[in-house]
Design goal:
alpha/beta, Rossmann fold, six-stranded mixed β-sheet, two-stranded antiparallel sheet, elongated, Methyltransferase domain-containing protein, SAM-dependent_MTases_sf
C-alpha cells in the first residue's frame, strides 16, 4: 500500500511521488484516451450527471456531456487540458473541497498509485460521492508478467511496488465492489507500458517512456541499457521470435483493471 506522507508538493504542485513538472511536459501527446477503455468507464459511471475526476491530469477519460469537476494538483498537467473540457481545480485527493454527497459519481484513472495518503484519498472520494466510485488502475500482482520485464525489470518492479492492492482499494471504498479486467487494444491510444504490447518499437521513443512515470524512478544508465537491449533484439529478430505473435493480437489481457465501488 502506498504511504508517501513525507512527500511534499513539488514546485509545479505535483502531490505524489512523480515529478510531473519534469516528466509531464509532453504527457498529453502520448496519453490520449483510448475509446474502448473510455466506454468501460462511461458504463461504470452509469446515469450520473455530476461527476468528479480526481487526479485528473490532462483530462483523459473525462466524459463529455456530463457536469464534470476535475481536481489536479500539478500545474503542468492542468496546463495541458484541452479547451473543450473544464479547467481543473488545484487540490489533492486527500482534501477534496466539496460537501458530503455532492457528486453522483466519481472517477480516478492511473493516479491512485501516486497519492501521498491512499486511504485518505479514497475515503474523501467516498465521502463526496453518493453513487459509484470508479478507479482505473493496475493489479500489482500481474504487472511483472508483461514481456517488458525481460528488458526493463527495474521499471516494472517499480510499477508493481507503487500500485496498491485492488482488494485494498475496494475494502476502503466499501459497498458493492466489482473488479473488471480491461482488455487493451492493439492500437491503444493511451501510452502506458502495456499499451505497446504489440508495438515494441514505441519504447525506443524517449517521449513515450517519459509519459510512463515508472521510468523516471530508474537511473538513466539502467534505462539506456534496457532500451539498447530491446533495440538489439528488434534489429536481430529475437524479440519477434519470442513475442512477434503479439503484433497481430487484437487485444491484450494484462494488469489493467477497473474497480467499481457502488454504495
Amino acid at each position: 500500500m502506498n504511504d508517501m506522507s513525507s512527500s511534499p508538493r513539488r514546485a509545479d504542485g505535483s502531490a505524489g511521488d512523480a515529478d510531473y513538472g519534469r516528466i509531464g511536459q509532453g504527457y498529453a501527446s502520448y496519453r490520449q484516451p483510448e475509446p474502448a477503455i473510455a466506454a468501460l468507464i462511461e458504463a461504470a459511471l452509469g446515469p450520473a450527471r455530476r461527476v468528479l475526476n480526481v487526479g485528473a491530469g490532462a483530462g483523459s477519460y473525462e466524459p463529455r456531456g456530463r457536469d464534470m469537476i476535475a481536481v489536479e494538483p500539478s500545474a503542468s498537467m492542468r496546463a495541458q487540458r484541452p479547451a473543450d473540457i473544464v479547467a481543473a481545480i488545484d487540490a489533492t485527493a486527500e482534501a477534496l473541497p466539496f460537501p458530503d454527497g455532492y457528486f453522483d459519481a466519481s472517477m480516478a484513472t492511473f493516479t491512485v498509485h501516486q497519492w501521498q495518503h491512499l486511504d485518505a484519498g479514497l475515503r474523501e472520494m467516498r465521502r463526496v460521492t453518493r453513487g459509484p466510485v470508479v478507479i482505473l488502475s493496475c493489479d500489482p500482482d500481474l504487472v511483472q508478467a508483461f514481456w517488458l520485464n525481460h528488458y526493463a525489470p527495474e521499471v516494472l518492479a517499480t510499477e508493481a511496488r507503487r500500485y496498491p492492492s485492488l482488494g485494498h482499494i475496494g475494502t476502503v471504498l466499501g459497498g458493492d465492489v466489482e473488479i473488471v479486467a480491461v482488455p487493451i487494444p492493439l492500437a491503444c491510444r493511451d501510452g502506458f507500458n502495456e499499451a505497446y504490447y504489440g508495438r515494441p518499437e514505441l519504447f525506443l521513443d524517449p517521449g513515450a517512456r517519459s509519459a510512463c512515470s515508472a521510468w523516471s524512478f530508474v537511473g538513466e544508465t539502467q534505462n539506456a541499457a534496457s532500451i539498447e537491449k530491446l533495440r538489439q533484439d528488434l534489429d536481430c529478430g529475437a524479440w519477434d521470435d519470442c513475442y512477434g505473435f503479439l503484433r497481430n493480437q487484437p487485444n491484450f489481457d494484462g494488469s489493467l483493471r477497473l474497480v467499481i465501488a457502488r454504495p
